[in-house]
Amino acid sequence: MWSPGSDNDSSSNKDNESSIISIRRLGKSFETGSRRKTVCYQVLKDVDLEIRRGEFFILLGPSGCGKSTLLNLIAGFEKQTEGELLVHGRPIGRPEKERAMVFQHADASLFPWLNVRENIEFGLRMRGMKKKERAEISARYIELAGLKGHERKFPRELSGGMKQRVQIARVLANEPDILLMDEPLGALDAFTRRVMQEELVRIWGETKKTILFVTHDIQEAVLLGVRIGIMSIGPDSRVFEIMENGLDYPRDLTSREFNLIQKKLQGIFQDDLYFHL
Ligand SMILES: Nc1ncnc2c1ncn2[C@@H]1O[C@H](COP(=O)(O)OP(=O)(O)OP(=O)(O)O)[C@@H](O)[C@H]1O
Questions:
Q1: ipTM greater than 0.95, yes or no?
Q2: Of all atoms in ligand 1, which is nearest to the CA of residue 71?
Q3: Which key words tag this protein in UniProt (predicted)?
Q4: Which of 4, 17, 148, 161 could form a disulfide with 192 if both were Cys (CB 3.0 to 4.6 A apart)?
Q5: CATH architecture of 15-84+177-277
Q6: Ligand 1 site-directed mutation target among 26, 29, 30, 81, most atoms within 8 Å of CB
Q7: pLDDT band at 142 (very low <50, low <70, confident <90, very high)
Q8: C-beta separation of 180 from 95 below 8 A
Q9: Which of 252 and 277 is assigned the larger pLDDT?
Q10: pLDDT for 194-232, tens place per residue?
């Protein structure tokens, strides 16, 4: 058992506390409609958020509030319309390997003609890394993601949970600083999802990566997050509250403390005030 923020970072406490992502008064709007009549839809407005190095941060909010939009901005897939978004103190340009995205549907991101090992090595090969070094790195992440013995299988021969493991291993092989996870377990059955939640906590503990994880599942948020950023309903969505979750890992879904946090979050979403934020 270990506590959030205790032994999860081998670097100094100062480093542990420092921000890796700084978001100030961030806004994002989209122009929609036809060429004749365009409508501006303001998804995010005045988002302020600091993500600490090495933390497991959850973005929690209902469908359509703008969680993926915020993740896409951090990934560099989209550009903000207002405000500031800094990673390592620098404005974000294009997508880079230091900020890696894990998508909900692994099928869309894995190459069907490559086996597990080749999929994991893909980014390394593209960067011109030598075969021996690639093999060492992929072996490490195959082991870490629990894929040993499945290296030669193709995506079509894998279960949903295994495909998600391959996606995570491939992302980790590129040594990102930040993992951006957009409902990565949303497409899995309940049993596999539970297993993968535990695995993710283990992988996070072993790699010390900063994880920004999007979900609309309150139980998942309490199970995984060190801090939980709660988003208001769109349009003009923002992170209006951040809840600290100091429960030790691995977390017990049946414990009184777990249920108290879960109930507190449920209360926020059921309160009439939430709909008028
Ligand atoms: N490229 C786009 N053009 C126009 N509108 C967009 C675009 N991308 C997102 N939106 C709108 O922004 C809003 C937020 O979408 P987003 O996917 O970020 O929400 P979400 O909280 O991730 O939802 P879910 O949990 O259902 O995935 C939605 O109303 C969506 O229609």
A1: yes
A2: 18
A3: ATP-binding, Nucleotide-binding, Transport
A4: 161
A5: 3-Layer(aba) Sandwich (3.40)
A6: 30
A7: very high
A8: no
A9: 252
A10: 888 998 999 899 989 999 999 999 999 999 999 999 999
